[in-house]
Amino acid sequence: MTGFTPVTGGRNDYDRLLERIGDRRHVLIGEASHGTHEFYRERARLTRRLIDEKGFTAVAVEADWPDAYRVNRWVRGQSGDDGAVEALADFRRFPAWMWRNEDVVAFLEWLRAWNDAQAFDEAKVGFYGLDLYSMRASMDAVVSYLDRREPVAAREARARYACFDLFEGEGQRYGHAVSMDYAAPCEHEVIEQLLDLRERRHALLAQDGWLAQDDFFFAEQNARLVLNAEHYYRQMYRGNVSSWNLRDTHMAQTLQALTEHLSARRPAKVVVWEHNSHVGDARHTQMGRHGEVTVGQLVRERVGDDCFCIGFTTHHGTVTAASEWGGIAERKRVRRALPDSYEDLLHGLVGAHGDAFWLATDEVSLPDNLLERAIGVIYRPETERTSHWFHADLGRQFDAVIHVDRSHALHPLERTPLWDLGEPPETYPSGL
């Protein structure tokens, strides 16, 4: 059947997919869970080819801006970190395994080696975060930047950000207190700080050179992250789609700002790594009908055909996930896909196309409005249908889909006895 290409681990698996991507400058590659080895491995394989053969200049991921920027400095040879594992050390917040895992380490080591082989710094590929959960780390980064350049401005920034000192943690307690009218919002202070930083741009960039511009951009994005995170945490207790839309809008805006910043040196081409639920076009999903937007939708609306979106699916296997927010990483069984789902439909094609394959959605006639599974950092099989399935039009949500019929949990760098033990198989205790 045309439109299907087996994924065997061979060099030519994605030849035709790269042809379809063509000269597009935005390639968004998803994942159906935050804990599946094959999703990370195949995404990295495809990204390596986009960098090596298509000239992509950056990898932007669903991670916090300051944490990923430390990795960026290491892969570009600008830090003293002793290897990829140490460069990932700032990823301490739950879920640490999402980036502190063996697959990410392998990709970063490849990227560092690729960069080291480049004759000019302009040819090196960066690694950046798009997310907004790092409110406190970003405040610290803004102050640290100003400490090195304008101590008076740093003192003013500390005074503004002191508005958050009453609240522990990244922002949940702040958001709850403000939503319940227990505390006044810090909106004015974070807006004032971002505007003040931008007003000082000329003086702060008096030092010539790209590194000065890069450092200012890093600080400015941190200040903007604090602004958007403050708004996000105030909205998250309202029980509507506002907080989701604020987060995805922030990630899309950060991607745009990053692309424009990098294009000052050479035309930027960016690979985005995020969950299917962010990469896919929300207009063709149940969530979109409820008013949610996604990064994939916003990028498509902004750049049109200059964007190519790739999703992942799996039928069954294992996954690294927690049972509750903030919980430890467990190796869980992914239950077999539900009937009337895209995963079950693709499972039925395994015999003809192999255990893993990719398909171009405009070459294959897919039914409309089937179920699709999404596993984030939490997997609750006891509420499988309500927690992890939604209706979508897969053929319009993505330009291509990679299906791995039986998938396996990725290996966290910090494995626990519970992860090593794993969840009993379906046949337990009979052993049949």
Quick structural summary:
The protein has 432 residues and is an alpha/beta fold.
Description:
The chain is α/β, with parallel strands linked by helices. It has a domain at 132-246. 45% of the residues lie in helices and 15% in strands. Strands 1, 2, 3, 4, 5, 6, 7, 8 and 11 form a 9-stranded mixed sheet that branches. β6 and β7 form a beta hairpin. α9 (187-199) runs antiparallel to α11 (210-235). The protein is globular and about 70 Å long. The chain starts with a strand and ends in an 11-residue tail after the last helix. Mean pLDDT is 92; it is low at 427-432.
- Percentage of residues assigned to helices: 40-55%
Tally of helical runs: 20
Q: Termini, distance in Å? A: 36 Å
Structural class: alpha/beta
For the sheet with most strands, the description reads: 9 strands, mixed
Write the layout of secondary structure elements.
Blueprint lengths: L3 E3 L8 H7 L4 E4 L7 H18 L3 E7 H11 L8 H4 L14 H15 L9 E6 L3 H15 L1 H11 L10 H8 L7 H13 L1 H4 L5 H26 L6 H21 L7 E4 L2 H4 L6 H4 L5 H9 L3 E15 L8 E5 L7 H6 L2 H4 L2 E5 L9 E4 L10 H5 E4 L1 H4 L2 E8 L9 H5 L11
Parallel strand pairs: 2-5, 2-6, 3-4, 3-5, 6-11
Antiparallel strand pairs: 1-8, 6-7, 8-11, 9-10
Helix pairs in contact: 2-5, 6-7, 6-11, 7-9, 8-11, 9-11, 11-12, 12-15
